Amino acid sequence: RNMSSAGPEGRKKMRECHGLIDSLVYYIQGAIADHEPNDKATENCVCILHNLSYQLEIELPESYAQSIYMQRRNISNSDKTPGCFGTRSRKVKEKQQDTPLPEEKSNPRGVESLWHSTLIRIYLSLIAKSTRNYTQEASLGALQNLTAGTGPMPFAVAQTVVQKANGLPSIRTMLHVSHPTVKKTAVSLLRNLSRNTSLQNDIAREVLPDLVSILPESVPVSDIECETTTSICYTLYNLTQSNSHNARLLLSADGLPKIIAISMNDSNMFSKASRAASVLLYSLWAHTDLHSAYKK
């Protein structure tokens, strides 16, 4: 577990180690089957897999990169530059939606297991069944890592989480836990998932009212709450930017007074959350059909 967080070279060596990833997955599967998702060894295993999934898209071996990412050659470097709102340009988004999903192997081995639907379902199972905060956080964090990129693999993982494995109810539960880091990681995962336009309606229907409910009534009081609030605002921005129905859903969940209060903070310490709330307000105002509702 310690070695898996030692940087790119350490991750590379561990991913290449014959049988290591397979053994970790095998152990966790056994623990879940035996109804023992809370033991320390399971926590260690999932934390290792979480670390090995970090920067996976960038650090994939050349052989995988060639077979899975041939489609990416058409995306120019300028298109891949993140926009000022922390989301990709519409052109890249549209290109991502048109990209064919990578084909899954029925019997993955080694590094292939890291993005396979079998392991994604294991993470979701641990999120639902484990009561250990580190296990919950590592499972959410692994999914966050796997959905963080711009290529077909992160898109396929997001599709699996939301539509094939029905993972949103388990993630939604994590929004209401008392542990601040678990909550922050759950929100960061939802922020990644919400960038996929084909999943936005499902996400809004399932978790938008919950996201509004955990927004603070005013300026966040700690760094971690500030980060969580910022991520919530950008997730809501993704969900409502091109969807008037989702903007109305935010309005009916009484989100507007909270967002206005957060946006009005001018303290440097929490300006990130304030800026995110302002970006969200600006985007919401673009829905001209909702102006009279906003004014009320």
Features:
296 residues; mainly alpha; 2 domains; 18 helices; 65% helix; 0% strand; cell adhesion; repeat
Give structural notes.
- With 296 residues, the chain is mainly α.
- The chain has two domains: 1-63 and 109-169; 196-295.
- It is built from 18 helices and no strands.
- Helix 2 (20-33) packs across helix 8 (117-129).
- The longest helix has 18 residues, at 223-240.
- The N and C termini lie far apart (54 Å).
- Its main location: other.
- Residues 79-109 are annotated as: Disordered.
- It is found in: Cell junction.
- This is PKP2 protein.
Largest sheet: none
Structural class: mainly alpha
Overall 3D shape: elongated
Overall number of domains: 2
Rounded radius of gyration (Å): 19 Å
Helix percentage range: 55-70%
Helix and strand topology:
Layout: H1 8-16, H2 20-33, H3 40-52, H4 56-59, H5 62-68, H6 77-80, H7 90-98, H8 117-129, H9 133-146, H10 152-164, H11 168-174, H12 180-193, H13 200-213, H14 223-240, H15 244-252, H16 255-263, H17 271-285, H18 291-295
Helix pairs in contact: 2-3, 2-8, 3-9, 8-9, 8-11, 9-12, 12-14, 13-14, 14-17, 16-17
Summarize the structure.
It is found in: Cell junction. The protein has helices at residues 8-16, 20-33, 40-52, 56-59, 62-68, 77-80, 90-98, 117-129, 133-146, 152-164, 168-174, 180-193, 200-213, 223-240, 244-252, 255-263, 271-285, 291-295.
